[in-house]
Amino acid sequence: MLSFTRWKATLVLMTVLATMLLAAPNVLPQSWVDKLPRAMRTHMTLGLDLQGGVHLMLQVDSDEVRRAMLENLRDDVRRVMRDSRLQVQNLGFQGNAVVVRLREGQNGELALTELRKLPQMIGGAFSTSGQYDFEVSRQGDTFTVTATDAGIRDKISRAVTQSIEVVRRRIDQLGTTEPVIQRQGIDRILLQVPGEKDPQRLKTILGQTAKLEFRLVDQSMTPQEA
After folding, report:
1. What sign does the dihedral 143-148-154-158 (CA atoms) show?
2. Per-residue pLDDT tens for 144-166?
3. Residues whose CB is less than 8 angstroms from the CB of residue 85 and which lie 6 or more positions away in sequence, other chains included
4. pTM of the predicted model, to two decimals?
5. pLDDT in tens, 40-86
6. Rounded distance, CA 159 to CA 69, Å?
7. Quick one: fold of 63-148?
8. At what angle do helices 108-115 and 62-83 cross, to 10 degrees?
9. Is 44 helix (H, G, I), strand (E, B) or coil?
10. CA distance 129 to 133
11. How far apart are CA 119 and CA 134, in angstroms?
12. What CATH architecture does domain 48-61+153-215 belong to?
């Protein structure tokens, strides 16, 4: 038969009692919990598997991000032409590029010099990636400014980062504890809200977030396969 010294038995008993007191708010009715001292009202945070909740996969609208990127580029090209006092015959889109054609007799070298100021190094001026968001080419009086694949990916990645912050602020409005908000792949955000009982309310709140659309999670597929 095991025997304990009195101080060890007392320590074990105090530990058991403390554990029971800390666990009490998780098993007692809420009306009882409200009568406990404030320091003892803390509930253990249960995960999605224990208390249920909402499990959503959000996806940034990549086409919308690309479209906005090209529209901004078109505006920049138009501004460059205007500031350089160059007359434009045509200005429009062609795939992932903005194409501008000068009127006859305009200074093509000036146009090329100014347009080459538009591309920016991905990751900032001190980046070592060596990749730019745009490429500029010329054929006669026609100039093409093309959004690179790396530039589009970077734009989408930044849109996801911004969307995560927006989602986090909106979820905080619900007063939910310990939500899971994680980037998944290139353009997706995994959202888990333990304890949330109204998925539609959550979708309504998040539906105000720009450049996001909802995708139901297929548990049989990985984010890479989806």
Report:
1. positive
2. 999 999 999 999 999 999 888 88
3. none
4. 0.68
5. 555 554 444 445 577 888 888 899 999 999 999 999 999 999 999 99
6. 11
7. Gyrase A; domain 2 (3.30.1360)
8. 140
9. coil
10. 11
11. 5
12. 2-Layer Sandwich (3.30)
